Amino acid sequence: MHSTAFSHVAMAPATLKKTVKHEIHGVERTDDYDWMRAENWQEVLRDPSLLQDDIRAHLEAENAYEDALLKDTEALQEKLVAEMRGRIKEDDTSVPSPHGSFAYGGGFRTGGEYPRIFRIPRNGGEEEVLLDGDVEAKDRSYFRLGGADHSPDHKRLLWGHDDKGSELFTLSIRDLETGMDLEETVLETGGSGEWDADSHGFFYTRLDANHRPSKIFHHALGTDGETDRLIYEEMDPGFFVGVSGSRLNDWIYISAHDHETSECHLVPAADPGTAPILVAARETGLQYDLEEGGDVFFILTNADGAKDFKIVTAPVSAPGREHWKELVPHEPGRLILSIMAFADFLVRLERKDGLPRIVVRERASGEEHMIAFDEEAYSLGLHGSYEYETDTLRFSYSSMTTPDEVFDYDMRTRERRLLKTQEVPSGHNPDDYVTRRLMAPAPDGELVPISLVHRKGIALDGSAPCLLYGYGAYGMAMPASFSTNCLSLVDRGFVYAIAHIRGGKEKGYAWYEEGKREKKVNTFTDFIACARHLVAERFTSHDRIVAEGGSAGGMLMGAVANMAPEDFAGIVAAVPFVDVLNTMLDDTLPLTPPEWPEWGNPIASKADYDTIAGYSPYDNVGAKPYPPILAMAGLTDPRVTYWEPAKWVARLREFSTSGNPVLLKTNMGAGHGGASGRFSRLEEKALTYAFVLKASGKAVEG
Description:
By secondary structure, the protein is an alpha+beta fold. It has three domains: 256 residues, Alpha/Beta hydrolase fold, catalytic domain (Rossmann fold, 3-Layer(aba) Sandwich); 147 residues, Prolyl oligopeptidase, N-terminal domain (Methylamine Dehydrogenase, Chain H); 127 residues, Prolyl oligopeptidase, N-terminal domain (Methylamine Dehydrogenase, Chain H, 7 Propeller). Helices cover 19% and strands 33% of the residues. The strands form eight sheets. It has an eight-stranded mixed beta sheet, with helices on both faces. A seven-stranded antiparallel beta sheet has the order 7-8-9-10-11-12-13, with no helix packed on it. Strand 10 and strand 11 form a beta hairpin. Helix 3 packs across helix 13 and helix 7 crosses helix 8. It starts with 19 loop residues before the first strand and ends in a 7-residue tail after the last helix.
């Protein structure tokens, strides 16, 4: 398939080749573009100006080439930004959440790029701004707000920020009486912390030299951060650690985990000096999470073969596994996602038959009921609560046609009260759109769900363009939720579709297992099957369908480009994890050891090496008719390093037989999430949508 939409107004950058040989398990590979990996990449994360000149020049040349080939879409991009911005309520705020005598919330001012944190008196009154993101971001080329957590005594705010995109956060403490930050700060953290019970200090995660969260410290207010007490250190490089707290503020949870195993330690929130208490020793494949419920812990776990998880209880005084008692048994195909405990109720969010649902259980009687919803496909979310002694549950609901709605639900009377509906200032009528849920047959007979939305009345004769989105990794389910941005495509006649492929948990935990490690190829063939089903059902045609995915979904894009290049009119790969084999062979990279349970360890296992080598997008580029491809990268990205998409693009351009353009856009001042401001992010989305429109044959003027 040859694209006529892109006029070659500029020559692609000439890319230097320096052949490097690697050998492992008796297999020798050559890599012509290994030189793009900066030896000082860790320093570059902290100071992007340290990137060596030849690599910087190459990335800037790629950016110039991308600019040239999409120059004719500049007016369209401006139009798309205006449209998407017009659907955002600029002075939007969250519904404040009550805690003690206050209610806390967040939101934006008109024209503001970054959120502000505020509180009001619990029963209403004047708003007090605790932190203004626009003020903090002033004179910074990049700014991202991390966690913002008020102390139990409501006198201070612990907040984190990242000013490079490298996810190395600085923690600051704001005195809420003066509005000023204390002089003490904590550097290179995970971005948030958890206050101790007395508001005298906080627990936080510190990142090591390889960007891995490996240590938990306690910082006492008024002391030098260099003297912070080490509470826990994880010695296994394959595990990450995190810290959180219970709603009753009695316990600090320290979690150590990879993608398939977890372990939890407890510290009394009122006594930070206590040695952490182990709940259940790590056991490969065993996962569990704790939720405090007064004198018991509710534990969500997959122990004893509960693949889709069950809920057990244990006394707070003896939380060890030998004391676990089953409360909600395992039910195959019903995946319990999360739980929340209140004084009189236990709430769980679960997924069955591909759809989420909320179940409320009365703790005293064990009686359960579900909150009912009507649409064919939708998304649900439980909102956190500061308070334990309450009958009120807050949740959100949306669908691909219904804007986000926030409800307070009385768990006792079963009455729901609509608190807020997402406003679309430029207008939105759900009745103008149709949302559908299809089932695409995979090559092995599995049925893969597809959620889609299109305008009512469009011709479904194969002529409609389509953007098909996919992810399919880490057990992450892609919600069928409302997106104002995609309306810019849908209102131009597109079908916008989400492929709920294996590797996620849309159809239970087994759906995840069937799309990882040695079964990873199912993720790719599922996505291709979804594209072909949409064509077979006349929603679109192969010369009109564009595929999109990011991060691990970018790996998906690389794989389907190799496996079925002629099935797509174009491919968008955002921060794509495409150099899988080289990355999994490099245990100095931040995420590599913790990623081995997901992809396999090609260093230790020849079988894992062969599996990854069989699909790794970079290693499987060949003489094929690739469609137009746009790859997006971030220079300070610690998750998918910039050189992965840069190497992939160079190799695609070298081997492609179609003559279609392969473009690389690197944000030289951002990381994995791209631009940091809510409006500057729209410019990146407009760029990708302009590419999508062009690749699918829609008029550039849009």
